[in-house]
Specification:
three-stranded antiparallel beta sheet; mainly beta; 7 strands; Threonyl-tRNA Synthetase, Chain A, domain 2
Length: 130
């Protein structure tokens, strides 16, 4: 979503068999219509690329210098001085404290269960693992 529209992750919740992600688009790049099937196909193709996923801890001050950060880093409490960055090889880099796979194809098959408007600039995406 970031590559096509400049959308940033606003919030997320990852569970054992499902996930929710809310993204926010910039004012000038809100898509008129997102097709659920083509969106799922795009995600599925990325998963099948078997991308390496790694992490590293950085000082919070370094976050403003990262070119690949796709989350709202201002959501991280000021008291947090060190942040774990999770990198998806050649695709993305996020500040995150959750559990992650080591390669994208470990995710497996999934269903895109929801692609919903949550206001003019926000979309909610829900996925369920098969």
């Amino acid at each position: 979503m970031y590559n096509h529209y400049g959308a940033l992750a606003k919030s997320s919740a990852i569970e054992e068999n499902h996930a929710r992600l809310e993204i926010q688009f910039p004012e000038d790049r809100v898509p008129d219509n997102l097709d659920k099937e083509s969106f799922k196909e795009t995600i599925d193709n990325l998963i099948k690329q078997d991308l390496v996923i790694s992490s590293e801890e950085v000082d919070r001050g370094e976050l403003s210098h990262e070119d690949l950060i796709r989350t709202y880093t201002n959501l991280i409490p000021e008291s947090v001085r060190h942040v774990r960055l999770v990198k998806i090889e050649g695709l993305d880099e996020q500040a995150c404290g959750g559990t992650h796979v080591s390669k994208s194809n470990e995710i497996g098959d999934f269903d895109l269960t929801q692609l919903k408007n949550k206001g003019r600039l926000k979309k909610r995406i829900k996925l369920a693992l098969r």
